[in-house]
Each structure stands twice: as structure tokens, then as C-alpha cells.
């Protein structure tokens, strides 16, 4: 008597086999994208070119999208291919981190702690904690990612970071967080021969009609209502003469040195000591922001990350700072 649904069972097994095969190909995709050549990637991966090509085709069939522009030399990625490369690299990084966490269970504390944040002087507190921690746990490594609050929180939400330094008014309530004993002070970075350098602080009136250099993050806050920066500048924001926008303060420092304008910045990010030609003056009335160390709610921290958090808490006196 014939077995019913035999064809369906075979098709289901075939689909499972193709999915398993596609999963393996998923890990092979980033090397192909980096090499720009299936042949070159196959050589690096110690595979034959036909084998690698077959797995890539299976992956395209499984996901229902073409990942490469055909006949392009070197290989060019389609939009779907670019997305796959980003996702594959993120997933593989998480796999490596998970393997590292399990590898050190029951042994000395080791592994990698991933920290993200905007440019802030509060990072010194983190670095001092790391320096002290490594005396007892030299096998712990640290990686840092600099970026905007949106970039850093996205990575934190996706598990690509263990911790993030967040400057108010970031959405602190979404996370577990420790308030750090540091306050970011906003002000103006200028040359020492600038007439404003003779003042102890800079007012809104002092900034009217002068060329200003502004961080992209600060500009976004100015353009958004209901935050401290927008309230400080008020309706006068539209009258500011912003001549350049920057991401990293080093670029802003060069622009100020060359006389392009004065830079809105945070205290402590640029070297204004010694014989240098720059100085920093705070805004008046003061415009200040607290800084928090945040990590995901409900997330179990690995051995290295948990050890780092204990070190931070110890440096803060052993407890959670009040919100």
C-alpha cells in the first residue's frame, strides 16, 4: 500500500536541508562581500569556487532576493545584499561573543566588554575603572564605539554593545542605568586671541551674528523642541550663523584654529591647556547635562561585563546612583 504524503515529506526534508545549507552560507557571505570576488573568497575560505557559488545561490533562493549584481567586477552588492552583509556581520559578532562568554565560564574572568557613547569627558571615569580592573583581571578586553545617542542606543538594543554612556535628555528610563558623578558643561571653543576669550562666560547675545561651528548632534537638539538646548537658545536659534557641522571634535578644533569660527562644544574634549592657541568658555546661564552608564533591561551580562559593572559600582561607592 503506498505511503500517503510521501512527496510532501520529501519536499519538507528538502526544504529543511536547504535552510540548513543556507544557514551555513550565511556565515560565508561577509567574506565574499569583502573580497569582491567569489574566487578570492573561496581561496581564503579553503573551498572550491563551485561549492561556494552553489551555497550562495541556495542562500538567494532561500531568502528570495538577489544579493549580487550579475557580471559586475569586482562583485557589487544589491540593496538586499548590503543589508544581508550588515546583518550577517552583526550576527556573527554576537555568536563570537557568546562563544567567548561560555568559554570562560568557570575559569578566570575573561572576554570582551563593548562600550559605546558620544564624545564626553565622562569617558575618563570609565577608563580609570578599566585600568583598575585589569590589574586583577588582565584577560578582559574592551572595545569602544563612538557615535550619536541614536546610533549607540540602537546598538545597545540589538545586543551589539554591553554598555552605553548616555547624555541627557537620552531615554534613560528604557534601560538599567547608573548616574555617573560627572556633568557635561556646554560652552564655546575659541582662539585665545578672540575678543570673547576675555570673558569668563559666553551669553546668547555674544553669539549673535558670529560664525559658529556646531556638532551634528547638538544641531539636532536645537531643532527639536522640549529639551535644554532648545530652551537655552529659544527663538533666537534661527538667527545663528552656523557655517559648519561636525561629528568629531578634533575636526572642530582644526576649524577653530584656522579661524573658520567658534565651536559649540563640551568642556574637556579639546586640549586648551599649556601653550596651545585655544580656550573654552562656558555658556551663561549654564547649560549642563548629566551622564549615565546604561545597559539593557532583563539582559544577563556575561562574566566580563558583569565584572566591569561591579568595578564601576565600586568606584561609585557600591550603590546605584539616584535618578
Report what the structure shows:
The strands form 2 sheets. Strands 3, 4, 5, 6, 7, 8, 9, 10 and 11 form a 9-stranded mixed sheet that branches. The N terminus and C terminus are likely disordered. The chain is globular. It is 42% helix and 21% strand. It is built from 10 helices and 11 strands. It has 3 domains: 83 residues, Orthogonal Bundle (Arc Repressor Mutant, subunit A); 111 residues, Periplasmic binding protein-like II (D-Maltodextrin-Binding Protein, domain 2), CATH 3.40.190; 103 residues, Periplasmic binding protein-like II (D-Maltodextrin-Binding Protein, domain 2).
Measured distance between first and last alpha carbons: 73 Å
Radius of gyration: 26 Å
Number of strands: 11
CATH architecture label name of the largest domain? 3-Layer(aba) Sandwich
Average pLDDT number: 80
Broad shape:
globular
Instruction: Bin the strand percentage.
Output: 15-25%
Please identify the structural class as seen in this structure: alpha/beta
Largest sheet: 9 strands, mixed
Amino acid at each position: 500500500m503506498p505511503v500517503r504524503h510521501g512527496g510532501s515529506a520529501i519536499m519538507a526534508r528538502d526544504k529543511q536541508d536547504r535552510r540548513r545549507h543556507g544557514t551555513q552560507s550565511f556565515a560565508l557571505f561577509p567574506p565574499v562581500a569583502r573580497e569582491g570576488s567569489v574566487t578570492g573568497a573561496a581561496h581564503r575560505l579553503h573551498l572550491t569556487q563551485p561549492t561556494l557559488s552553489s551555497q550562495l545561490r541556495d542562500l538567494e533562493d532561500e531568502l528570495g532576493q538577489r544579493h549580487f549584481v550579475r557580471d559586475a567586477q569586482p562583485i557589487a552588492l544589491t540593496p538586499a545584499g548590503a543589508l544581508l552583509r550588515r546583518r550577517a556581520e552583526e550576527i556573527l559578532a554576537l555568536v563570537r561573543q557568546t562563544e567567548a562568554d561560555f568559554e570562560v565560564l568557570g575559569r578566570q574572568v575573561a572576554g570582551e566588554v563593548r562600550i559605546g557613547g558620544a564624545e564626553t569627558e565622562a569617558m575618563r571615569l570609565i577608563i580609570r575603572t578599566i585600568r583598575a580592573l585589569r590589574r586583577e583581571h588582565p584577560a578582559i578586553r574592551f572595545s569602544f564605539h563612538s557615535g550619536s545617542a541614536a546610533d549607540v542606543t540602537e546598538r545597545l538594543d540589538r545586543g551589539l554593545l554591553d554598555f552605553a554612556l548616555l547624555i541627557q535628555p537620552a531615554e534613560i528610563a528604557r534601560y538599567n542605568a547608573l548616574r555617573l558623578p560627572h556633568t557635561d558643561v556646554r560652552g564655546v571653543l575659541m582662539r585665545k586671541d578672540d575678543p570673547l576669550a576675555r570673558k569668563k562666560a559666553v551669553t546668547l547675545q555674544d553669539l549673535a551674528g558670529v560664525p559658529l561651528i556646531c556638532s551634528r548632534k547638538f544641531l539636532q537638539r536645537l531643532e527639536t523642541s522640549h529639551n535644554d538646548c532648545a530652551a537655552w537658545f529659544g527663538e533666537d536659534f534661527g538667527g545663528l550663523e552656523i557655517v559648519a557641522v561636525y561629528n568629531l571634535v578634533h575636526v572642530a578644533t582644526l576649524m577653530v584654529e584656522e579661524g573658520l569660527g567658534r565651536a559649540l562644544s563640551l568642556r574637556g574634549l579639546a586640549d586648551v591647556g599649556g601653550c596651545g592657541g585655544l580656550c573654552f568658555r562656558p555658556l551663561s546661564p549654564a547649560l549642563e547635562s548629566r551622564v549615565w552608564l546604561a545597559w539593557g533591561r532583563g539582559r544577563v551580562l556575561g562574566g566580563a561585563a558583569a565584572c566591569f559593572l561591579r568595578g564601576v559600582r565600586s568606584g561609585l561607592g557600591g550603590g546605584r546612583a539616584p535618578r
